[in-house]
Amino acid sequence: MRRKIIAGNWKMNLTLPEAKAIASGLKEKVSSQTAVEVMVFPSALHLHAVAEILSGSPVITGAQNAYPAVLTAMTGEICPAQLSDFGIKTILVGHSERRQFLGETSEICNEKIKFFLNSGVRVVYCIGETLAERESQNTFTVLKDQIKKGLFGIESAKFKDLVIAYEPVWAIGTGKVATPEQAEEAHAFVRKEIGALFVGADKVAESIQILYGGSVKPDNIASLLAKPNIDGGLVGGASQKLDSFLGLIK
Ligand code: PGA
Questions:
Q1: Region 88-94 average pLDDT
Q2: Can you tell me the mean pLDDT for 56-77?
Q3: CATH number of the domain enclosing 77
Q4: How many domains does the chain divide into?
């Protein structure tokens, strides 16, 4: 059985007091009895404070990005060794905003994923097609490419620390959610492609958690999670208010 995950991506939103308030609310309401696994990805500046509030809670604090190297000369970046000072062992890779606006390619994602997994970090790897790619019937070509390049050369034993997030770019922050059928079709395809990555990958594909992202809200999450291949949500807007975040978890 794949455990469901509700992950909140706070992006470059929220002030420190706002982030701390949501973290405190999550700490109070999420317990070891909570059925789903809960993750939050605050701004790098807020990681320390949020991780401190959530220490001792099952809620996982993760970083939105990191650089794939050990402590070294790399101005402006942060690395897993520094994150681990705060107990942070989960990192998002390849979010579409980074792909679109910061030039992050699937090859760069591959370098990060490999380095992070080898550093004992859990990775949430984001993939998804743009509206133009969907309209030109290229959704599956794009997803296949992002999977093949992003996951190239990763050993089967490392897949236990990997989560995939399928986030159609046209659904992110637009209020236009994919229908449960559209999402399920993409998730089933992604699972099948992971199963074809190497000999014996079918077992890995069966157990990997695949989250849906893109305008997930408390009122549409249940119909998405009802689909057999959708194992949770990566949520932007609706995770940035305590009430709606708790609504998603419920
Ligand atoms: P959204 O963002 O829920 O605001 O659409 C999702 C994401 O970008 O992870």
A1: 98
A2: 98
A3: 3.20.20.70
A4: 1
